[in-house]
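Recap from last week: sequence in, structure out.
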Amino acid sequence: MIKGQPSRTALLTAVQRAHHYQTAPEPKVLRDNLAMALTGLEGPEAVQGYIDTMVQTFAALSDHETATIFMDRIDGAVCMRSRVVEEELPAARERGLKQLVILGAGLDSTAYRCTDLTENLEVFEVDHPATQAWKREQLKKANIAVPKNLTFVPFDFENQTLAQALEAGGVSADKVTFFTWLGVQMYLTDEAVKSTFSVMGAYPKGSEMVMDYISPSYVTATGLVENSVDQLQEVVSKMGEPLKSKYYESELEEMLTSAGFSTVNFLSARWLIDNYLGGKKDAFDMPDEATSILTAVI
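Predicted C-alpha cells:
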C-alpha cells in the first residue's frame, strides 16, 4: 500500500470494470458506468492503455494471444462477481436485510450505482484508510454524491481486528446483514480468512455473504486439470500484493459451515452464463466448469 493511493489490485479491478463497460459486447455482464471515474484515469484511451500494458505483462510470461484471453477472462470474472451481488440483494431484502457491508471495498461502485437495491439499508464500506481517502477524492472530482445511508469504516488490519473495526464503524451485530467480500480472500493468510468467516458467521439467521476465491486448479469436462492462476500469482506478486491462500470447494464449504453458515452455493461459469446472460458466452468466456464465486447464507 502506497500512502495516498489505493491498492494496486483495487485500481486494476476498477480499470477492468471500466474496460468491460466500454468494450464488452451485449449483453454486458455488468454496467458499471462509474468505474472509469473512480480509477482517476483520463478517459477511455487511458483505460485501454492500462489494459494493454497488463496484457503485455502477462504476454511476457506466455504469449500475446494467451495473455489476451487470460485478461479477458479476468475482466469477466471481476464483473461477474459484482453482478452476483446485484442479483442476490433482492432476495436478501425479502429475508429482512438491514445492512450491506462491503469488506475490502476498494473502488467498488455498488453504493453509488445501485441505489434502488440499497434503499433503506445501512451501507458500510470497509477498507484501509489510504484507499478510502483516495476514493473519496475521486468521487469529489467526478461530482459523484456519497449516499446519505453510506458510512466509510476504516480498517487498519495491523492494529485492529475486523470485529473491532465493524463495531467502531457502527455496524450492528444483531441485524440481518449482507456481506460482499470481493477480490480479498486470495491476498490473506489462511488464519485471516478463517477469522473473517468466524466474524461474519456470527450474524443473525438470514444474513448472507458473496465472495470470490482462487482455487489451485479445476478439472475440465475433458479431464484436463487446469491450473489457471500461476501467471496471475506472478504478476500480483510483482505488484506487491502476492497471493497467500487458495482453496478447493470442499475446503471452503467445510470452513464456512464450521463458521456458522448453513447453505453454501458454488456458482459455475456455465450456471452464471445461463442464468444471467441467457446462455450467451460472448461477455464471459470462461470454461464451463470453472468456479470462482460462491454465496453463503446463515
